[in-house]
Design brief:
The protein folds into 2 domains: about 140 residues, Sandwich (Jelly Rolls); about 110 residues, Arc Repressor Mutant, subunit A, CATH 1.10.10. The longest helix is centred in the middle third of the chain and has 20 residues. The radius of gyration is 19 Å and the shape is globular. About 45% of the residues lie in helices and about 25% in strands. The relative contact order is 0.12. The chain has about 250 residues and is α+β, with helices and mostly antiparallel strands. Strands 1, 2, 3, 4, 5 and 6 form a 6-stranded antiparallel beta sheet that branches.
Length: about 250
Amino acid sequence: MFFEKEDLTIKMLDVIELDQKNINMRNVNRNFNALSFRISADTVLDTGDKKYQLADNSICFVPAYVEYSRISNKDKLIVVHFNTTNYFFNEIEFFKPHQPELLATLFKEILYYWNAKENGYIYQCTSIFHKILYECHKENYSSPENINPIYPSVKFLENNFKNPNITIDEIAKQSFMSTVYFRKLFRKIYGISPIKYVINLRIKYAINLIETEYYSLYEVSKLSGYDDYSYFSSEFKRITGISPSKYLYNYKL
């Protein structure tokens, strides 16, 4: 799903290079996405439900808040940490590109400009990152209308999740199917219920609003699709592990 998107809104956070051996570590509570290029790797990412074997020249996307263990005999990679404001992802994805040399060059280039910190480097790095996403998209894209029977509903959901009055019935109608059948297909394709998907999108959007520091927490609640601040606060804490006020406090530190 991530590699097939073509309208991501990106906020870059960091670009780093790692060269590690004999690693066995658990990653939890990561509030950012990661896209990496494995220069040299013999690595397994284990979520408990699935295992992902990463080798040389592989591209891997790990969403925010997905917990996993990384077990590596060797792991040399360049990774970009970033946030998205318009989509929520909950599955690790990876592939081995047909032209790894091109993507290796782009990852090395973005690392160079990020470390150099020259005037305007954020624009330069963002531009390169979009080139990386373009190449990943080219290698993974297939028409969602042909392979996903609920694509119209998912598109409608992603465009309207901030509407506090949106209903699963209304979302299901976009694909001309019953609510019961839509719920069944949605869980089969995305691994979670449609309402949980909506909640995840709202909380992810709320996090990005909080980080702008332009809005009060009550305004964030409203803009994210919640009329009841108490309910918003409880949902936020359930997803992130901390309250909105605590998240804001930590972000300002």
